[in-house]
Amino acid sequence: MRSKLAAGNWKMNGTQEALSELAAMADAAKGAAEVLICPPATLLASAAGRDANIAIGGQDCHANASGAHTGDISAPMLADAGATHVILGHSERRQDHEESDALVREKTAAAWQAGLTVVLCLGESLEQRENGETLDVIAAQLNKSTPDGATGETLVIAYEPIWAIGTGKIPTTEQIGEVHDFLRAELNTRFGAEIGNAIRLLYGGSVKPGNAAEIFAVPNVDGALVGGASLKAADFTPIIEALNASG
Ligand code: PGA
Predict the structure, then answer these.
(1) Which residues have C-beta atoms less than 6 Å from ligand 1?
(2) Residue 192 CA, ligand 1 centroid: distance in Å
């Protein structure tokens, strides 16, 4: 059975005082679901180790381990700061920094080298969905962004339709289910059933306390990657609890 994962992506939000939210999430984090918070890099070291049940992750890493790359952070540096996970290929990185699938693949390999679990994001734009290209786009992103050798411990996939991120719009549960079933089949084909069935599939995009239970009831949804609603324990706690309560 795959363990469930509630992952929070704080994006470019939060200074030291935001870390008090971790303590407020601690009780919910004792449940069956794993809990991961990805704060901005400036908070990683102080967030790590605050609560044994809350794992800490980065939001990006460089493909190289070190070197002349001003402003960048490498995977070994994330691990050194106490991170166990890293989000890669988020659509905001793909858009703001023109990250290609090939670069995301290189970063994933670098993160694995440093012992990090990668939460790899993919998803279609509204135009691609309206043109009926969703599954093709997702298959291409999955296959081009993921190196060989993935396992259930080293890779988590987050399906995040770009049009659902930060918009309050979410796909229907049928649409989420279609993509997640498709991703499961693609992973089984690529990595074999044992590994393909062990890789967690998260849904991301406008997950809120009010819609979490319905999303978690969809087959092949193993948790969520949550942006805005992960910033405050008052919002994230009910999402973790809904995941703890899901079958
Ligand atoms: P959102 O962001 O929950 O604020 O829509 C999700 C994400 O970008 O991971």
Answers:
(1) 9, 160, 165-166, 204-207, 225-229
(2) 30
**109: which 2 tokens?**
């390999």
Catalytic residue among 21, 92, 124, 160: 160
Asked if residues 62 and 73 have their Cβ atoms less than 8 Å apart, the reply is yes
Note the pTM of the prediction, 2 decimals. 0.98
Domain locations along the chain = 5-84+98-222+236-244
pLDDT per residue of the chain (247 residues) written in tens, 0 to 9: 799 999 999 999 999 999 999 999 999 999 999 999 999 999 999 999 899 999 999 999 999 999 999 999 999 999 999 999 999 999 999 999 999 999 999 999 999 999 999 999 999 999 999 999 999 999 999 999 999 999 999 999 999 999 999 999 999 999 999 999 999 999 999 999 999 999 999 999 999 999 999 999 999 999 999 999 999 999 999 999 999 999 7
Atom of ligand 1 nearest to the CA of 228: 4
Amino acid at 191: F
| 90 annotated active-site | yes
Closest atom, ligand 1, to C-alpha of 158 = 9
What whole-number distance in Å separates Cα of residue 236 and Cα of residue 247? 19
CATH topology of domain 5-84+98-222+236-244: TIM Barrel (3.20.20)
Q: Whose CA is nearest to atom 1 of ligand 1?
A: 227
Of 138, 46, 48, which Cα lies nearest the Cα of 85? 48
Residue 82 contacts residue 54 (beta carbons within 8 Å): no
